[in-house]
DNA sequence: AAATCCTGTTAACGATACGTTAAAGTTCGT
DNA sequence: ACGAACTTTAACGTATCGTTAACAGGATTT
């Protein structure tokens, strides 16, 4: 139920100072993050286990398991999740440096919310590609006629029945869809998907077209038509406003 | 000991002396606990499996499985549940000391009910945060089909029978669960859990998938399916409201 | 209409991804 | 330092996918 709330980023905030915690939570939620809070290390770990967390913000000084121990336990479960440490100025930087890994960062109290926000933006930029690859990137579901193409799960669904596509089939169909109702040159498709154009690639492509046509024959309004000597076009009825 | 109304603490009492057992049960119920009784070790373990137990009071001298063996079996299922041993004065304390863990305590017969009550109060205070915070809080238990995954105790339970997972097995299964019914890229899983992606990590992951599948074969509605060249998906039936 | 090129379709092959088991290596508690 | 528990590496079997081959029609040109 708390899972995919749209595509909000889920932040685990562990901070024992109730006031600071509340302020941060408010701010983060205002910035459109989903916030999960905990007030000590053990609870923080429990919350981490329960939720799909995308970013951790951990106070270093925590009861019942300090920030480093907590971070270690989290690292045990997820090697690439970004962690931001909140630390008092007094703390030796070496200790942090020694601990923090590639994806980590730290920020010394007191700090402004803008400062925090900048750090978050930065760390997410650095780590994102690995993390959200599939989640935030782009749209994954394409609607064509009565079909729904899911490029993440590689499925093509119509009226309850589902075909499982291969990666290449899905990629090709997606490419056709992105240029629906316009003719795609054979060469263009080949270069895009195969990276080269020769006789065999050309024939291979035809085989894939055949397979896609087989999948698509349940809805006669969706067609892959050939333009002799030029290429293919995915015919799709336009849904209202486009 | 602020337990919400309707959330009585469930005590498992295992004691073979029928008279003593009855007296203790009366007293505990008078003190507003829910009491589950058993008169030998094996029965005690069975009761433990059937009920949600919050505290165990075990006689050390028991037929069919002594208190220590029973405690070990219980520890196997729940690492943090508090246990109080009832022991005759004669028993060497070392033995108890050696056995009892952080959350455990013992009391030598004969003892007064007040004494017992104090011990219970104390042990619950000591252990409570671990126990109730999370138990009452929210699910730290993931339900998939007829299985229950407990990431704290590393157990996977179905219809009474329990598998003990390793940390890595549990972490992987949890990751799959957090993304249930969507395909997780192999790379993503490897980076998250192993921190790197190479040939051997990849093969190692396959080994873990095999093991998880073995655990999960009791419920045919829960499956780890492979999408060739992409990754894995945990198929789980959606429970009603989601 | 014949000749030639382009496309449609099916089946089979080889490469690669995955499944599984067991042995070797590692870690960890004692 | 030893043994138990766990993870990784190795080895081998199986399944799947993309390509190729082979053949069959159409389309276009002459």
Features:
four-stranded antiparallel sheet, alpha/beta, 8 helices, 242 residues, elongated, homodimer, 12 strands, five-stranded parallel sheet, disordered N terminus, DNA-binding, 40% helix
Model description:
2 copies of one chain form a homodimer. Chain A has helices at 18-30, 41-50, 67-77, 93-99, 113-132, 167-178, 186-193, 199-215; strands at residues 10-14, 34-38, 55-59, 83-88, 105-109, 141-144, 147-150, 155-158, 161-164, 184-185, 223-227, 231-235. Chain A has 242 residues and is α/β, with parallel strands linked by helices. In chain A, β11 (223-227) and β12 (231-235) form a beta hairpin. Chain A is elongated. The interface between A and B is medium-sized, with 24 and 34 residues.
Concise structural overview:
The first copy, chain A, is of the alpha/beta class. Helices cover 40% and strands 22% of the residues of chain A.
Please specify the SSE layout and strand pairing.
Two copies of one chain form a homodimer.
Chain A: E1 10-14, H1 18-30, E2 34-38, H2 41-50, E3 55-59, H3 67-77, E4 83-88, H4 93-99, E5 105-109, H5 113-132, E6 141-144, E7 147-150, E8 155-158, E9 161-164, H6 167-178, E10 184-185, H7 186-193, H8 199-215, E11 223-227, E12 231-235
Parallel strand pairs in A: 1-2, 1-3, 3-4, 4-5
Antiparallel strand pairs in A: 6-7, 7-8, 8-9, 10-12, 11-12
Helix pairs in contact in A: 2-3
The first copy, chain A, binds a DNA duplex (30 and 30 nucleotides) through helix 8.
């Amino acid at each position: 139920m708390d899972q995919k709330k749209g595509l909000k980023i889920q932040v685990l905030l562990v901070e024992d100072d109730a006031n600071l915690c509340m302020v941060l939570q408010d701010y983060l939620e205002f910035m459109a993050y989903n916030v999960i809070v905990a007030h000590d290390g053990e609870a923080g770990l429990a919350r981490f286990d329960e939720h799909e967390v995308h970013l951790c913000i951990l106070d270093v000084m925590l009861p019942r398991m300090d920030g480093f121990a907590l971070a270690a336990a989290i690292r045990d479960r997820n090697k690439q999740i970004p962690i931001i440490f909140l630390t008092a100025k007094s703390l030796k930087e070496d200790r942090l440096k020694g601990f923090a890994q590639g994806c980590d960062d730290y920020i010394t109290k007191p700090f402004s919310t803008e400062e925090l926000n900048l750090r978050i933006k930065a760390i997410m930029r650095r780590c994102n590609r690995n993390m959200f690859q599939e989640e935030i990137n782009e749209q994954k579901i394409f609607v064509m006629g009565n079909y729904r193409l899911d490029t993440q799960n590689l499925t093509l669904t119509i009226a309850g029945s589902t075909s499982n596509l291969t990666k290449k089939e899905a990629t090709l169909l997606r490419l056709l869809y992105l240029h629906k109702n316009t003719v795609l040159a054979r060469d263009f498709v080949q270069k895009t998907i195969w990276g080269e154009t020769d006789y065999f690639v050309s024939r291979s492509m035809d085989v894939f077209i055949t397979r896609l046509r087989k999948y698509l024959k349940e809805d006669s309004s969706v067609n892959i038509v050939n333009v002799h000597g030029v290429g293919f076009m995915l015919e799709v009825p336009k849904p209202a406003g486009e």
